[in-house]
Structures are given as structure tokens and as C-alpha cells.
Design a protein that fits this description.
With 142 residues, the protein is mostly helical. The protein has helices spanning 62-77, 82-99, 104-128, 134-141, and strands spanning 2-3, 10-11. Helix 2 (82-99) packs antiparallel against helix 3 (104-128). The longest helix is centred in the last third of the chain and has 25 residues, at 104-128. It starts with a strand and ends with a helix.
């Protein structure tokens, strides 16, 4: 057994490095001189890469807010006070679709949902009040 000159830990005779502090206190050989780079071709200098800062998104405009309002009115109108919310949803979504550029898909979805929900509400209201003849609604609702 031999002892490390650095930390004093006991090591096996075959160890080159101390198992405790990882120093080379048991290495009898001298370090080899560094290899010269005479035959190694040098790489061309690397050009620095400059990152462009991200463009800030413009703030939400009135048309974007109308688009979101129209979509929310369309969805909420399917469950409650659709007589009020569906016309608001159609109007706000159409204005958002025509004037806005950011959320055109949402505006289209709000318009379609509002129109379909309004038609469903109208047919159910007419059926419940007995205005629609029975032959129109019999196949669909019975």
C-alpha cells in the first residue's frame, strides 16, 4: 500500500491516480511534451454570427378584439341568451374578418358558428310556438 502525497489517502500499489483526490502523486513519468501542429492544416477563421432581434408584434387592434368578441359571443350564445349573443357574434366577427389581418380564421369560425346557432335558435323558437307546420319539422325533430 502507498499513501497519497496530496491528501494522505491509502491507495493500491498499482494506482497511478489517487482514488480520493484524483491527483497524480503516483505517476513516476514526466509529462510528454505537446505535439507540434506543423503538419495540421489550419481552419479558416470563423465569421461571427449576428442574430437579428425578433420584431415585436404590433399590439392588438380594435378589429382583433372584435374578432375575439365575436367568437366568444358565438360560443356562449350556443348555451345562453342566443337571441342577443348570436347577432353580436355575427356583427363583430364580420367586422374582424374584413378589417383584421391577424385572426381571420377565428373571425370566420365566429361568423359560421353565430349564423348556424342563430338558425338553430330560430327554428326551435318557431317550432315551440307552433308557427312551423308539422310536415317541416316532423322528419327532423321526431
Amino acid at each position: 500500500m502507498k499513501y497519497c502525497k496530496n491528501c494522505g489517502a491509502e491507495n493500491n500499489d498499482g494506482n497511478v491516480f489517487c482514488f480520493n483526490c484524483r491527483c497524480e502523486s503516483f505517476n513516476p513519468g514526466q509529462p510528454e511534451p505537446p505535439v507540434s501542429n506543423v503538419n495540421v492544416p489550419s481552419a479558416p477563421p470563423v465569421q461571427p454570427v449576428y442574430m437579428m432581434p425578433a420584431r415585436p408584434k404590433p399590439p392588438l387592434g380594435v378589429s382583433d378584439l372584435l374578432t375575439v368578441l365575436g367568437f366568444v359571443c358565438a360560443i356562449v350564445g350556443m348555451f345562453t341568451i342566443s337571441m342577443i349573443l348570436h347577432p353580436i357574434g355575427v356583427l363583430a366577427s364580420v367586422i374582424g374578418f374584413v378589417q383584421g389581418k391577424r385572426y381571420r380564421g377565428l373571425a370566420l369560425a365566429g361568423t359560421v358558428i353565430s349564423v348556424v346557432g342563430g338558425i338553430i335558435y330560430l327554428v326551435i323558437s318557431l317550432y315551440n310556438n307552433g308557427i312551423l307546420p308539422e310536415w317541416i319539422t316532423y322528419g327532423a325533430l321526431h
